[in-house]
Amino acid sequence: MIEHPGFYPFGPSPLNIVKDTYPEQAHSQDKVLTLEIGEKHYLFLHGHQFDKTFRSTGKLWIVMSLIRDGAEAFGLYSWLLILMLIIFGLLARIRWNASYMTPITGVLSILAFPKLFTSIARPLWDKLKKTRYKRKKALNGFLDWWRSWTECKGYPKGIRIVYGHTHLADIIEPQRYRAITGRELLTEGREGLELINIPAWVKDYAEKYRNVLRAAFLYIDSEDYWFIGWDWEAGRPFYIPKEVVKLMGEGRKMPEEMAKDLREID
Question: Pick the residue with more confidence: 188 or 122?
């Protein structure tokens, strides 16, 4: 548990940072470990596990993770490193025989590369892909990954799998699997998986979602789960009904009557 300084409306709160799967599965070979809340079982994933690009490249996603960590390691000083790289690079070209410039430029290149990569790659990716979320592709990827991952493992009924990675929100209930993909989820007696996609608190610059801040989180207790959004202008949370999340996931427009009801929620 790590204490993070800052302003918390409900008092100081410890933040538990975990890896790509929670509960961690390393010490369990014969069953899927879940977090039991009320009568439901929850499994938390990052979501890259069933991304086709990440699955086809094996462990290459670790390299991307390290690059991202490197980009964030120096914070705003990363831009200073890039500026220094440009300056020393120009000096090295002007004074090509200055042998001491080469190692300095080399070190600065290594330190500045992660920030350069993430600053250029993300905008280019968004322009090429437009929107990062394709519901059918995400669900097919999950089905392939889940069957492979749980081939020799047991797990309880009624698992809710919470994941991110797409930066968008969605809810896919078990009865919707066939309608979306034309495939059954699992063999009889092992059904009941519900997928809950939570968004990331980042700006997505894809054309369709330009300048939209997807600030929402999932609140879970023994009764159920709820999507909670954050209103940056009012400085307060607000409730997001599941019906709205499903509409967003399906790419459908919200009916005016539903939009009116949402505006009246305090």
Answer: 122
Asked if 143 contacts 185 with a C-beta cutoff of 8 angstroms, the reply is yes
User: pLDDT digit string (tens) for 217-250?
Assistant: 899 999 999 998 887 777 888 888 898 888 878 8
Residue 123, C-beta contacts closer than 8 angstroms, at least 6 positions apart: 205
The mean pLDDT value for 110-119 works out to: 84
Q: What is the DSSP secondary-structure string of 157-183?
A: SSEEEEE-SSSS-EEE-GGGHHHHHS-
All residues at 6 or more sequence positions from 60 whose CB lies less than 8 Å from its CB, including other chains = 54
> Is the confidence at residue 20, as pLDDT, over 60?
yes
- Determine, yes or no, domain membership for 82: yes
Indicate the number of domains in the chain: 2
CA–centroid distance for 59 within its chain: 18
pLDDT at residue 141 greater than cutoff 90:
no
Boundary of a domain, candidates 129, 149, 183: 129
Task: Provide the residue range defining the domain that includes 109.
Answer: 61-129
Could you tell me if 238 and 217 are in contact, meaning their C-beta atoms sit under 8 angstroms apart? no
